[in-house]
Backbone:
């Protein structure tokens, strides 16, 4: 909840958050009362809260999930993010449904189907290019949401079964053990070692900073930051970074409008390189690119700050234009490409004294993966002030004072107070005091930019500063309640239909794990279906990952001729050899569990 509030304070138009169960990040669960508190806080700014119910579900869980959905609706949740289509066969309240990226929203046909069955928003596959998003937009009218920042799953979302095959922890149940971050060898069919002990499936982090305008032009209406398991400093920094980019776009284009209220003023300069990151990639935004993976480590490397020019037993010197401070964390790759790090004890001019002796060759790149001063700044409570513009009018009659407020969304509140009629010694002085006190909004959500005083006569009654402050407090308190109550929740009744699903035959990759999901797909014309991978007895010989990322392309080995079904390469760990299949016509790589 606290991190969600920080996201809103730093400019988020919406926050997605999970309950204690049934969310795709099991470790990021929250109790109901925290969800309700976040919803109330978000709605003050007309920001929205989307509850994640984006795991596959088992028959024994369906009654509990249906009950939870009604609770979320009654709390005022703006939408549910779902994966399991069995939910559409439930007795649902009129709540908007968003199709999670876990539903593998990669094609025009899939997105069009989701629109036709009543889904309000589709969260697109991360692998889509700007051109492919534009194509989907031209063929649909459903709201489109795209990831723009954070950790990348190497597999198509919802299509990764490697964690479950290895550990019994299913990514589709929010329990992913992240085998994609492990080390592997790449060998060919002759046993030749191509790559040794590398993180061959570990992608860099997503960063679409340079493509936000292009995403808007492509038809995306919601920009999504991955960060449910990140710390609050990360959430503040990255949210503020994209808020500033988006606000500049909104200022330049009168055809676009902001989705929530208030303006943010920050006490720091947002910089994505200064919080957790594995290095950055724009992935497939403009087609296949190089250096998508972080082959040598799955950990945060942070920002490249320079190169070593000398190293002694006591200190090192770095050629850099970036200021380095006491308690910073620096890191580097040794001759074996192993990531090593050290803490900075002190800095004297161009000499950096590490907490323990290090031996770093001259010319080695040095990164900062912990920026102490920046991290301390982000721990402050006042890193952002989000204020809603409002005007106040104070009207005097013979017996009453009417105080009213109207904000940037034209939400209005007024309160009447009785006064004793005793005139002030100086009308002009009294009006100045009234304006001064009403402008003091302190830690509230409002920026009072205009205060008008209207007299029904020649004089104004005397009011003490305490009385004026009490009027202001009650007015803002009631107006806050009115804003929350006036939040425009989009209610949506799903009308069952029989729109044909794009495929007649579905394998385990459709993730059908309950009877309601089976009924859903059959109603939509599916003639043959398999149960979910998680319900199968053995994983041997099955495809456990499908990815647009290609190891051969990443290593510069792609010749475009590895046709479907031709097994020439294997991923190898300590226990297994996983066959790799390449479909070059679709530019996809598949990983199979050994027979």
Residues:
């Amino acid at each position: 909840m606290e991190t969600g509030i920080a996201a809103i304070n730093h400019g988020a138009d919406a926050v997605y958050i999970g309950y204690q169960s049934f969310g795709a990040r099991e470790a990021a669960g929250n109790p109901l009362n925290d969800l309700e508190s976040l919803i109330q806080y978000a709605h003050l700014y007309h920001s929205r809260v989307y509850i994640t119910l984006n795991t596959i579900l088992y028959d024994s869980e369906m009654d509990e999930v249906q009950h939870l959905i009604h609770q979320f609706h009654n709390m005022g949740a703006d939408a549910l993010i779902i994966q399991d289509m069995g939910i559409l066969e439930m007795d649902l309240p009129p709540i908007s449904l968003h199709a999670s990226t876990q539903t593998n929203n990669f094609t025009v046909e899939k997105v069009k189907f989701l629109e036709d069955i009543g889904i309000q928003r589709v969260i697109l596959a991360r692998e889509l290019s700007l051109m492919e998003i534009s194509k989907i937009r031209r063929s649909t009218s459903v709201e489109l949401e795209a990831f723009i920042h954070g950790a990348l799953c190497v597999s198509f979302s919802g299509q990764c079964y490697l964690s479950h095959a290895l550990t019994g922890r299913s990514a589709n149940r929010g329990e992913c053990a992240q085998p994609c971050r492990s080390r592997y060898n790449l060998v060919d069919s002759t046993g030749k070692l191509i790559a040794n002990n590398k993180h061959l499936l570990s992608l860099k982090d997503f960063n679409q900073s340079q493509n936000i305008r292009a995403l808007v032009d492509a038809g995306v209406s919601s920009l999504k930051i991955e960060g449910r398991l990140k710390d609050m400093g990360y959430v503040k920094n990255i949210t503020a970074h994209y808020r500033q980019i988006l606000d500049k776009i909104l200022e330049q284009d009168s055809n676009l409008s902001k989705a929530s209220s208030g303006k943010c003023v920050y006490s720091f300069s947002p910089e994505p390189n200064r919080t957790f990151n594995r290095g950055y990639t724009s992935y497939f935004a403009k087609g296949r690119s190089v250096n998508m993976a972080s082959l040598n480590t799955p950990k945060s490397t942070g920002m490249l700050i320079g190169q070593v020019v000398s190293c002694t037993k006591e200190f090192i010197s770095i050629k850099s234009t970036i200021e380095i401070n006491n308690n910073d964390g620096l890191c580097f790759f040794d001759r074996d490409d192993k990531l090593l790090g050290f803490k900075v004890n002190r800095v004297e001019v161009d000499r950096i004294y590490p907490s323990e002796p290090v031996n770093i060759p001259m010319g080695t790149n040095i990164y900062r993966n912990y920026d102490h001063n920046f991290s301390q700044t982000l721990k402050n409570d006042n890193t952002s002030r989000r204020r809603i513009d409002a005007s106040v009018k104070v009207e005097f009659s013979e017996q009453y004072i009417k105080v009213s407020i109207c904000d940037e969304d034209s939400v209005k509140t007024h309160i009447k107070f009785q006064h004793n009629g005793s005139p002030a010694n100086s009308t002009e002085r009294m009006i100045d005091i009234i304006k001064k006190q009403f402008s003091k909004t302190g830690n509230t959500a409002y920026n009072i930019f205009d205060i008008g005083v209207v007299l029904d006569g020649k004089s104004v009654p005397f009011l003490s500063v305490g009385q004026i402050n009490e009027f202001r407090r009650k007015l803002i308190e009631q107006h806050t309640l009115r804003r929350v109550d006036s939040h425009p929740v989009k209610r949506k009744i799903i009308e069952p239909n029989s729109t044909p699903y794009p495929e007649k035959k579905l394998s385990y990759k459709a993730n059908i794990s309950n009877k309601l999901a089976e009924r859903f797909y059959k109603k939509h014309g599916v003639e043959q279906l398999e149960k979910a991978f998680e319900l199968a007895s053995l994983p041997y010989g099955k495809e456990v990952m499908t990815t647009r990322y290609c190891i051969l392309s990443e290593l510069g080995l792609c010749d475009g001729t590895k046709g479907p079904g031709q097994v020439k390469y294997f991923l190898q760990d300590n226990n297994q050899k996983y066959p790799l299949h390449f479909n070059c016509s679709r530019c996809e790589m598949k990983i199979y569990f050994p027979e």
Notes: The two ends are 45 Å apart (CA to CA). The chain has 13 helices and 29 strands. Residues 232-252 form the longest helix (21 residues).
